[in-house]
Amino acid sequence: MSVSVLDLWLAIIVAGVLSWIASALIHMLLKYHNADYKPLPNEEDVSKVLSEKSPSPSLYTLPYCKDMKAMGEESIQKKFNDGPVAMVTILPTGMPPMGKLLTQQILFFIFGSFLIGYLASISIGLNTDTIAVFRHVFVASFLTYGWAQIPYSIWMGQPWSNCARYLLDAMIYAAVTAGTFFLLWPNLI
Predict the structure, then answer these.
(1) Which of 21, 78, 82, 138 satisfies CB 3.0 to 4.6 Å to 178 for a cystine?
(2) What pLDDT sits at residue 188?
């Protein structure tokens, strides 16, 4: 007998909320992500130059190449070799809109839990051993919350130590989500 994603609505909501709480605890109590960012030694100078040009919010690269073909040009190669080589994210001016960001984060976790629940509903039967439910949901959750971080270290210069911390987060969210589905799987209710 199959499980409907509707049968998992409580697990989906609870897993999303608990993952959001885990994220808050990671960032506000454990604070190991404080090591993710470093100050520029000339922050004031860089800030002044950027303020003068007022770039709109976006992701910028330095040096900029329109396409891979441009990387063959001597002038572009010189810029890369002379440095600096950077990716810079410009955000809107002002304090971060925490209410909006926290709302987006909880929706991220609830929608992620919905996708995980949907996958579980089409791949795990009603009377499946709950340990199998835990393992299946754990792997799906880890992939949902973590695996996509790796290309940021491969291609965008994110330090591998940052990636490792995000993968640790993903394992925590996976354990929370898998534990929730384990406890609320329909054959136990």
Answers:
(1) 138
(2) 53
